[in-house]
Amino acid sequence: MTDVIAHRGASRAERENTVAAFRRAVEMGADAVELDVRRTADGLLVVSHDPVVDERIIVATDAADLPEHVATLAEALDACSGLRVNVEIKNDAAEPDHDPDDLVADLVVAALEASGRDPTSLLISSFRLATVDRCRAVDPAVPTAWLVLAVADHVPAMLVERGHAAVHPWVGSVDEALVRRCHDLGLQVNVWTCNDAEQAAVLAGWGVDGICTDVPDVLLDRLRT
Questions:
Q1: What are φ and ψ of residue 80, in 5° steps?
Q2: Alpha-carbon dihedral sign for residues 114, 120, 126, 131
Q3: What is the CATH topology of the domain spanning 3-224?
Q4: Does a cis peptide bond (omega within 30 degrees of 0) precede residue 193?
Q5: Tens of pLDDT along 5-41?
Q6: Opening angle at CA 58, ends 93 and 74, nearest 5
Q7: Taking a C-beta distance cutoff of 8 angstroms, is the pair 38, 92 a contact?
Q8: Where in the chain are the domains?
């Protein structure tokens, strides 16, 4: 069965990447939640898609000085009780918190280990391959995935060789042949971002493992009825 993954929580119903959005995703019956993490000036991990919140650069600001709606990773995990969680590490070379040494990966893995969650209920992803490679090196028990716009021919075999569990392509770049090719290699395919129920039904028919969506309730109504 294809998982319905609440993108930044139930982000159409509540402010994205907040405890309220994660709790709403639980209420809606989502299978999993996707959220974004960044590090603060005092070395904590908080949940935010953007590197700047209310004109404050997160990496230059202590967690206590960020707006109240910005949750810590620990708070977010608590709010996602009962759901699988995909933690996307934001580590873009064009953004102020870029970490070329990928030490943020160590922080994330340590936080997930400290949470006491079963590693199989977690997934770490990033658009930076070196970041998820680092996660694999630190703790191979936590599954990892590479986020991409499109999957080049060599990518599935390369990811399997590196020990990653999944590839996360943009939904518009995916077809049934790609899903089949990845599955033949033992690689999962989770797509982003689909808010159309009929498109989701097609993707599920292809055997896509997970669909990231802003409207988990809409997709659940279509796929589970």
A1: -95, 25
A2: positive
A3: TIM Barrel (3.20.20)
A4: yes
A5: 999 999 999 999 999 999 999 999 999 999 999 999 9
A6: 105
A7: no
A8: 3-224
